[in-house]
Write a structure and sequence with these properties.
Radius of gyration of chain B: 23 Å
Number of strands of chain B: 14
Radius of gyration of chain A: 29 Å
Helix content of chain B: 25-40%
Largest sheet of chain A: 4 strands, mixed
Largest sheet of chain B: 6 strands, mixed
Shape of chain B: elongated
Strand content of chain B: 25-35%
Oligomer: heterodimer
Distance between the termini of chain B: 43 Å
Order of helices and strands of chain A: HHEHEHEHEHHHHHHHHH
CATH architecture of the largest domain in chain B: 3-Layer(aba) Sandwich
CATH topology of the largest domain in chain B: Rossmann fold
Structural class of chain B: alpha/beta
Number of domains of chain A: 2
CATH class of the largest domain in chain B: Alpha Beta
Number of helices of chain A: 14
Largest interface: A-B, 26 and 31 residues
CATH superfamily of the largest domain in chain B: P-loop containing nucleotide triphosphate hydrolases
Structural class of chain A: mainly alpha
Order of helices and strands of chain B: EEEHEEHEHHHEHEHEEHEHEEHEH
Strand order of the largest sheet of chain A: 2-1-3-4
Number of strands of chain A: 4
Strand order of the largest sheet of chain B: 6-7-8-3-9-10
Number of domains of chain B: 2
Chain lengths: ~375, ~325
Amino acid sequence: MKAVLAILKKEFIQIRRDPRMLPILFLAPVLQLLLFGFAVNLDVRDIPSVVCDQDRSPQSRAYLDAFFHSGYFTRRFDVGRTEDVDSRIDGGQAVMAVIIPRGFGERLLAGRGATAQIIADGTESQSATIGLNYAAMITSRYAQGLLAETFVRLRGSGLRPVLIEPEVRVFYNPDLKSRNFLVPGVLGMILMVMTMMLSSMGIVREKEAGTMEQLIVTPIRPGQLILGKLLPFLAIGVIDVVLVTSLAAFGFRVPFRGDVLLLGGLCLVFMLTTLGLGLFISTISRNQQQAMFTAVFFMIPMILLSNFVFPIETMPGFFRALTAIIPIKYFFTVIRGIFLKGSGWAELWDEAAAMAVFGAVILALSIVRFKKRLE
Amino acid sequence: MTSSSIEVRALSKRFGAFTAVDAVSFDVRRGDIFGFLGANGAGKSTTIRMLCGLLEPTSGTALVAGHDIRRSPEKVKRSIGYMSQKFSLYEDLTVEENIRFFGGVYNMAAPDLASRLRWVLEMAGLRGREHSLTRNLSQGWKQRLALGCAVLHEPGILFLDEPTGGVDPVSRRAFWDLINRLSEDGVTVFVTTHYLDEAESCNDIRLIHAGRIVGAGSPSALKASTIRNPILEVECGRTVEAMDLLRREPWVRDVSIFGVNLHVGVVEEAEGRRRLAARLEQAGIPLRRIDRIVPSLEDVFLRRIEDSDKEAGR
């Protein structure tokens, strides 16, 4: 026990003495959170658009009003010729274009179908897809309005319009704010990056400095050494959790509906995995540079396959199956659940169990690999 | 208890196809200063690392303080202190923090640690610098602090792997004074070095070359057993030419250059002096001085390596 305490104390002194360490540990999470809270926004609004209204009729104006009152599009440019539409999109000044051909209003009045052309810049595939969906929605709603008007005019005929009006309710995040989805995710990201990086450097730094050699000739047991090395990182992780969670809930007003203690407990369970992974990397690396690259090599696919930004549902079957072994995926379910849904133990025990298994396996593996010998 | 604190039997270490240590056997008597002498890469550090449990031997055994290094490495670790050739304390900890850290790792009780802390500070001359960062200490102080941390838990055996590399002569002398004091207190000191003057301070020496022991004994015994014929120190002109010339003479055992002089081993002193002067005069090489000298360990070392290489056909 005395040996573990000695290591713990030494680690804390070393962290305190490193002038760059404290900002990295506690400022970086806050900055990342600010970045994701303010800058990164997956909500598509105000798509810059170019309009080419060749009809200039009340009908075309009404249609365009419906378009731009939606808030999804901003009318940046009005051009007379279709060639000018191309140049705006080529030049990247507009992502969407609406072209209304001559005769649009006339055809509508005559009761014949009319067309409007919508062009989207496919290189911005996310904005384009969402923009096109909105455009289709706005157009069909406008058409529905026309239909209803027609029925009103023909009231005498005895025909009545039958319309199905969908009543949409979005649970947990009614405004579909991507901030509410992203900010709790940042907690998972920060926790993983911090604890994995710190622990992957932990053993390797001693190997590089030659102090590992001195430690190996002492009677300290590998378990004691590992415990003494990992506990400070666990403590740092806990501080980051408190920091990020309170900033998310009070600063960004991300709804927090669940149990704080449950969140804390499951963060600890998750950190078993990240600390274990870092330790494992430390045991297979010769120097800090190698450890750093190995950690990044593991982290990037984990983040891509984690449901942090890219939805798992749309991945091809193989990768969807692969996400089953990505520990942070379970953690994202946990934090989003606790934050937004107020999920409790009943909903989250299976994720907790999965994370506990990952943690136990990887920790056991790295303790076995960590030999008290020089290679 | 036997009188040996280390017993090594046919200990070998191979790294792939390379044999770093080749079946070495020796005993180290309790309380001795035991010198392991060899060039860089001869197998000194590999041997010391096996004895300290840092490396697993490929074959052979060793008992350190009565414990088998293979079967109970943890017991070995409790009875030894080790100081590596590279400074291996925490540079970002203060002197006192380093000492307290190792006290904790060795599970020392608080009162013991307090008195040993005072002892180490006193011994290493670090009183007043307890709160200096270790990285700011001079090399000599670092070395004495490392020694202090290595003997903090009062081990019976102390392993020092080239302890005085990169240290100025004054600090080296101070360091050896400490080693002598530890030895007087009954600590067995196992030290590797390639400084031949340091080896003169050892009670018992093994010469190691290419992983094998090529000489054993106290410095004086080694000299007596290796160099039976007299050695003449010759100061003359054109030393390289003179060396080549003398090597071909049947009455010359061996010739080597030491600084600006030649060391010439001859069969018999008076005869040797006469023939040497005659031969150099014949070749027109000016001769300034011939003296009979006591062979140094360096003479012994070079001779042993030469013999060993001849034997191995190199």
